[in-house]
Amino acid sequence: KVDYFTRQEIDHRVTVLPNGDARAVTTVGLVNETPPGEAHFVTHSYSPYALNVSLINVHVPGQARSVELSPDEPLTTRSRLHPRTFLTHREAGTTVYTKMVEAWPGHPARLTYRYDLPGIVQEGPEGGSLFRMQVRHQPLARPADLRITIALPEGSTVEVAPAGWTIDENV
Q: Secondary structure of 30-73 in the HEC alphabet?
């Protein structure tokens, strides 16, 4: 029930290289803001108070290379839940990296995924370049805070950007 007080922060940064490859860094944070004094049926008897143990899944494009995951540490509490370290499987053309994390008030959980995307930029119409990215929605108790930063090579221009996006030179 502490999910109600927990929010997910997702920061996805992509740096597109002049050769059409890209480097991506995705950080997923779980921030537990359960206030003190919540009823036992909300927080249970877990220690630390209001412990939220959650699975985080990140879908990385199937062509990703040099994937680094951190921290790759087991759970810190005495929970008997599994998996205790990263697991992977393939799904719909992506590699899914799964890790159980623990967050409690004042101690957010954060996972970082770093990977390279070879040849991600495709030739577009009229000789331009085309970079596409898909964000898949995940239903949560509270909507996630999502920030996406795409840095393009110097001299690049953006012709079409979704409503709500801001463009600052090549970022």
A: EEECCCCCCCHHHHCCCCCCCCEEEEEEEEEECCCEEEEEECCC
Per-10-residue mean pLDDT, the chain, length 171: 92 94 96 94 88 90 92 67 78 91 93 94 81 80 88 83 76 63
Element at 116 (helix H, strand E): strand 109-117
- DSSP string across 75-89: -SS----S--S-EEE
Q: Check: CB of residue 52 under 8 Å from CB of residue 102.
A: yes
Q: Which residue has the tokens 């839940």?
A: 81
For residue 141 the two structure tokens come to 């108790």
Q: Closest Cα partner for 18 from 139, 131, 125?
A: 131
